[in-house]
Amino acid sequence: GSDVRYFWDFLSLVLTMYVSLTVPYELTFDAAPSGGFGKVMDTTVVTFFCIDIILNFNTGYFNQGVTVMDRKSICRRYLAGWFWIDAISVVPIQTIMSSAESRLVALFRSAKFLRLTKAVRLLRLSKMNDLVERARDTIGQHGLFAFTLLKLLFYLMALATFMACGWWLVTNMESKRVGGTSWVQNQNLEDASSFEIFLTCFYFALTLATTVGFGDIAATTVSERVYCMICMACGVASFGALVGSVSNTIHEQRKAKSAQRIRVQGAVDVMKKHSVPTILQVRVQRYLGEMFRLDS
Fold this sequence. Notes:
Strand content: under 5%
Number of strands: 2
Order of helices and strands: HHEEHHHHHHHHHHH
Strand order of the largest sheet: 1-2
Distance between the termini: 21 Å
């Protein structure tokens, strides 16, 4: 049913968010999924996306207001659209490489290369807007504000994650090229775990993305300063867009509530003009209020 499909699309959105936050971390910091949770989530993501491909071959679509359920039309539309991105993102390259025996394949069987193959999952980010719009359509007016805040929070987290990964790549590049003391030594992180270093980079990236400025971590080389300037410029634009989106959502909600009050007041004025009993007026107002609540 449609409710099951809406729930499935919501899970797809959540797992796509999970991939967008974890894959850059694993690739940049050479961190493979550790512990039971990481491995279970890795298997869950691949399994879910495989099932999602099968469901997409069996899910109708709207065309000019008409629901199309013809199997050939559905397959043709899916094959001409998202199928190839979905298929590439679930190809078990790691398993194929690990089990293959040829010498040519053995050259690419290093742990770093196998982790790099996970980057293809990021292709599903191209479907993010489509998934967000589907989730938004299933949420009423009362939940729209909370949904918008969660969506913007994710965008901020994703932006900070990619900035953090870029910051670490620039730091490593500069350490190999220039050497000397960097913020890693200043923060006593030489022997820190990958996750601890990522958290430090993420903290620094948040200060850039939110335009808070520099604190205990600062750029020391030309390349790092250039990278920080680019990130701060992106942060100003992104943070301004986030604030503007929240303001627009609040304005739309107030506008919708104002329109509802005008309609209810219009009904009340008509009832008073025709001397409708007070009890009936109250019942009509309650009915209109409940109708607006269900519509939203």
